[in-house]
Structures are given as structure tokens and as C-alpha cells.
Design a protein that fits this description.
The protein has helices at about 15-30, 50-55, 70-80, 90-95, 105-110, 125, 130-140, 165-180, 220-230, 260-270, 295-300, 315-320, 340-350, 390-400, and strands spanning about 5-10, 35-40, 80-85, 115-120, 145, 150, 160, 195-200, 205, 210, 235-240, 250-255, 275, 285, 305-310, 325-335, 355-360, 370-380, 385-390. With about 400 residues, the protein is α/β, with parallel strands linked by helices. Ligand PMT binds near residues 216, 218, 219 and 360.
């Protein structure tokens, strides 16, 4: 879905500038109007013709070009969102002090739009006390810092400092845009909060090659993680068989089965301000897991599986949750009647005992795997808090309001 917005992509001088081309491209493909403001150093890493072809607009670099149209402030004033990717240590330092010695600095100072930066530098530079302080200053001002990730850097180095992947940067930027659109925009209201999110669907093995699973893609849980990161939270994502990429800025814990998810979420929840159980968790698992592949000539025309109940993880978290922690569960129901759907939601709330329950109608073409969702949130007493339908990112934003 396109927002058709004016997005300024600032590109600064780091090797990751080549990946910024894909950030620009993603916005253009959404139908946004993209203006690239590149520093002269950025153009040593990626060519102006490439950026102009991909952005479909002239690329601006020089502070003293377009003076008659007061370009040094006009670009910033027209922006709905500014994304700086990559953001070098030098640019971060300039932003923190409000320096405007180039077109990008002027553009940013002249803008009231949300600012998203994707740092990229070597690990030592990222960990340097000056950079740490500058990033903290920017975060405190509401700048959304995406990443950096951990991985291979330029040369032989590896570690923290790798620019986040373009899709993660774009997702965080869109979350920032969605938040800014709201009159009660919460901004970076989750700074200092640790949010644990489960995503995806558990798989219960039958034998080494088969499992009992479900159709959860992990999109809703990952959208929650992206939106929480964009609002400043530190996020632990407990991921069960995701079909979508997890943002690299999360602490990622990979799990397969319900029992593995239980162990991971129970451990992570101990220090969390909020836990959101968006994963689709198997209620049952096979009593026995066959050591070898189950052969059809040994089972005949029918195969009976004996299943045993998995623990109710959400109910367990509700029993042990510490004071002040917010626990949010989901209820995936196929009931088509809206009144009956809420009855089922209230019954589930009574069994689970969480603080909020996100009642989510699902079906062959609803809820699971789709990019959109429709939810009704109930509080602990079963009263309706809100009803939302839209992209999974917009749904995520409303759910996070419950802990903001
Ligand atoms: O991943 P997507 O493709 O984006 O799809 C999103 C979704 C439809 C999976 C998601 O929005 C959703 O509804 N997740 C909850 C799915 C689910 O397991 O619902 P449930 O009604 O069966 O379980 C209720 C709650 O108890 C859930 O929070 C679940 O995580 C939790 N649970 C379930 C079983 C179990 N043994 N322990 C649990 O804690």
C-alpha cells in the first residue's frame, strides 16, 4: 500500500551507501516521492546517475546550488519523513550538535518530519564513547535509530556496526511515518522499555521429516517488533519458524516447538516490561516422536496419532508475572459472528488471565499470512479497548499503545 509521501533519503559517506539504493527503490516502488540528498563523500561510494535513475528525481549535494529556490531549507520543509542511510559516525556527531555545514545538515535542521537514521561504521567507532553519547542524544530527541546490525564489515572486520538491511530500515521508517500521522502520536514512548514478543508458528515433530504446524508466517509478530524498535524499545523476539526476516536490531531467540517457546519466553519475560504473545502455539504435541520416518506400509490406510496437551504458556506467564509488567495475548478464532467472536474472546481471557487479549478473526484468507489484520482488544475485564483493521504494522502500533 502506498503512502504517496515525500521522503528525503540522506546518504552519507560509507561503503554501505550502495545498499541505500535499495532503500530508495523500496520507497519509489511504494509510490512515494523520493528526494536523495547525498553528501559529497557518499557520491564516492555510489554514483549520482544510479541514484537519479532509481529515485526518478535529481540528486542534491551542493549547499550552494538552487539558492534562488532556497533549497537548503526547502527540501527539509517539504519532507514527510527523512531517512539517513547509512549514517556515518561523522554525520551522527554533526546531527547531535546541530551542525549544518552541508546540504544534508541544513535539510535536517529545517525539517519537522520524523528522522530515522541507520548507523553504519566499524565496531570500534560505534562503541566509542563519543558515538555512544551522540546516539543517546539523538534518541532522547526522538530520532529513531535503526540498528546497526552485527555481521561482516568492510575488510576483514566483523561485529556490531553493519548497516541494517534495506527492508528493515524501510519498515522502521514506515512505522515512524504511521506514528507521526496520528494526532496523539506517541513518538519514542518506549525508550528504556524491554518488550518480549513471540512470533510465528510452533512445529511439533512426528518424526525426523514431519511435523504438526500451523499457517502463521510471523508477519504480525515481526511487525510488532519493528514498531516497538521504532518507538525506542529494546526487543527480544522469540521466533518460531518465521517466513519473514526478523529485524536484526532485536535480540533474536529461535525456537521450534511449544516447549522450546515456553522455555525461551519464560526466561526472557523475567526482566521484561511487556510480553506480547503473537505466536500461534500448538495446543498439542505427539506423545511419541518416531526416531525414523513413519512408513505408510507399517501404518495401513489410517494413521492414529496420540497427542498430549502442551502447557498453556500465556496462562503460566499470567500467574508468574511481576507487578507492572503488561501481558498481552492473542485469540485466533474462526467464528464469523462478531458477537459470538467476542464471547469466545471473553471466555479465553477468563482462562488466560492476561492484561489484554487481542481477538483476531482468522480463516483461510484472514489473519494468517496476510499483510492485513483486523482485531478487537479486550481488557482484563473483557471490555473492549479498541477495534482496528489495517496493515499488520498499523495494528501493531495500536497494540503497542497498550504499553506505551
Ligand atoms: O503470523 P501471521 O501470519 O502474521 O499471523 C498472525 C496470527 C494470526 C498468528 C496472530 O495474529 C495470532 O492470532 N496469534 C495467536 C495465535 C494463537 O495461537 O491463538 P490461540 O487463540 O490458539 O492462543 C491464544 C493465546 O495463547 C495466544 O497468545 C497464544 O500465543 C497463547 N498460547 C496458545 C497455546 C498454548 N499452548 N500456549 C499459549 O500460550
Amino acid at each position: 500500500m502506498s503512502s504517496g509521501r515525500t521522503i528525503v533519503v540522506g546518504i552519507t559517506g560509507g561503503i554501505a551507501a550502495y545498499k541505500a539504493v535499495n532503500v530508495v527503490r523500496a520507497f519509489v516502488l511504494r509510490g512515494d516521492c523520493v528526494h536523495v540528498v547525498a553528501t559529497p563523500a557518499a557520491l564516492r561510494f555510489v554514483g549520482k546517475p544510479t541514484l537519479e535513475a532509481i529515485s526518478r528525481n535529481p540528486v542534491h549535494t551542493d549547499l550552494y546550488e538552487g539558492v534562488a529556490e532556497v533549497r537548503h531549507v526547502a527540501i527539509g520543509q517539504s519532507a514527510d519523513l527523512i531517512v539517513v542511510a547509512p549514517a556515518t559516525a561523522n554525520t551522527i556527531a554533526k546531527l547531535a550538535t546541530g551542525l549544518a555545514d552541508d546540504l544534508l545538515g541544513n535539510t535536517i535542521l529545517a525539517s519537522t518530519a520524523p528522522l530515522v537514521i541507520a548507523p553504519a561504521m566499524h565496531t570500534e567507532m560505534w562503541n566509542n564513547a563519543a558515538t555512544v553519547a551522540n546516539v543517546a542524544t539523538l534518541r532522547a530527541r526522538g530520532v529513531i535509530v535503526v540498528g546497526p546490525g552485527v555481521g561482516q564489515l568492510t575488510g576483514a572486520d566483523a561485529g556490531a556496526g553493519r548497516m541494517e538491511e534495506p527492508d528493515t530500515i524501510v519498515a522502521a521508517a514506515l512505522a515512524a511515518l504511521a506514528l507521526a500521522d496520528r494526532t496523539d502520536g506517541p513518538g519514542a514512548d518506549l525508550v528504556g522499555k524491554h518488550v518480549v514478543i513471540t512470533a510465528g508458528g510452533t512445529r511439533e515433530p512426528l518424526d525426523p521429516v514431519r511435523f504438526l504446524g500451523n499457517r502463521s508466517s510471523g508477519k504480525q509478530g515481526v511487525a510488532l517488533a519493528q514498531a516497538a524498535l521504532a518507538r525506542g524499545a529494546s526487543v527480544t523476539l522469540i521466533a518460531a519458524n518465521l517466513e519473514v526476516a526478523a529485524p536484526t536490531a532485536v535480540e533474536l531467540r529461535l525456537v521450534g516447538t511449544a516447549l522450546e517457546l515456553e522455555a525461551a519466553v519464560t526466561d526472557a519475560a523475567a526482566g521484561a516490561d511487556a510480553v506480547i504473545m503473537a505466536a500461534a502455539v500448538a495446543d498439542y504435541r505427539p506423545v511419541q516422536v518416531s526416531a525414523g520416518k513413519i512408513k505408510k506400509d507399517e501404518t495401513g490406510d489410517t494413521l492414529l496419532l496420540e497427542l498430549t496437551r502442551n502447557p498453556d504458556i500465556l496462562a503460566g506467564l499470567a500467574r508468574t508475572k511481576r507487578t507492572g509488567q503488561v501481558l498481552i495475548g492473542f485469540a485466533a478464532e474462526t467464528e464469523p459472528d462478531p458477537v459470538r467472536l467476542l464471547v469466545l474472546g471473553r471466555e479465553k481471557m477468563a482462562r488466560k488471565g492476561c492484561d489484554f487479549l487481542v481477538v483476531n478473526r482468522v480463516g483461510w484468507a484472514e489473519g494468517f499470512a496476510s499483510d492485513r489484520n483486523a482485531i478487537t482488544v479486550l481488557d482484563h475485564d473483557g471490555d473492549i479497548v479498541c477495534e482496528v483493521s489495517g496493515t499488520k504494522m498499523s495494528v501493531a502500533g495500536r497494540i503497542l499503545d497498550l504499553i506505551g
